[in-house]
Amino acid sequence: MAEDIEIDIDDLERRMKGAMESMRHEFASLRTGRASASMVEPVQVEAYGQMTPINQLGTVNVPEPRMVTINIWDKAMVGKAEKALRESGLGINPQTNGTIIMLPIPELNEERRKELTKVAAQYAESARVAIRNVRRDGMDQVKKAKADGMSEDDQKFWETAVQELTDRMIANVDAALEAKQAEIMQV
Questions:
Q1: Residue among 134, 128, 129, 135 at smallest CA distance from 176
Q2: Residues in domain Ribosome recycling factor (predicted)?
Q3: In a designed cystine with 43, which of 1, 54, 147, 179 is the match (CB 3.0 to 4.6 A)?
Q4: What's the confidence (pLDDT) of residue 173?
Q5: What are the pLDDT digits (tens) for 129-175?
């Protein structure tokens, strides 16, 4: 029985990759001075009696590197969508032309770039914490298996495997953070 005790390393890796994906999604919402359709994803509009994501009220396009346009399908929603964009905290002043809302992306100043790098670092730290929590779960599984009769050699093998996976994922987070910070600081 003690021979077939195994730790589900694939599950641990899947959970760690989930933390990485969450961080990448948060990185995508950071404004870097370049237009991106994902920057308006968090914006919610009071539409038809409920809060609705703005990308479900119209087509989001990036026609130029410094411009996002949203073509609102229902003309009655244009004013509400514009108001939601103004109040969203994106720091962008929307301009309306019929059913099209244009979002010109201003150049970021040095101070704002530094603030954004700090926000990116916070997102990365959250991902590291999530990865370490998954590592702790993996180590707890190893300890439980040891109590269930796993040999010392197997215990060392699984602890090493979990630690190596954690180190690799943390290195991926650090690399993604470094790339995002370089992108933010690029003028």
A1: 128
A2: 24-185
A3: 54
A4: 94
A5: 999 999 999 999 999 988 888 888 999 999 999 999 999 999 999 99
**Angstrom distance (rounded) from CA 103 to CA 81:** 12
Q: Name the 3-class secondary structure at 74.
A: coil
**Burial track 151-168 (b if 16+ CB lie within 10 A, e otherwise):** eeebbeebbeebeebbee
Runs of H (alpha helix) within 39-151: 78-86, 110-147
C-beta separation of 23 from 86 below 8 A: no
- Domain with residue 165: its CATH number is 1.10.132.20
The residue behind tokens 């959970």 is 15
pTM over 0.85: no
> Low-confidence residues of the chain, pLDDT below 50?
1-3
Q: What CATH number is attached to the domain comprising 91?
A: 3.30.1360.40
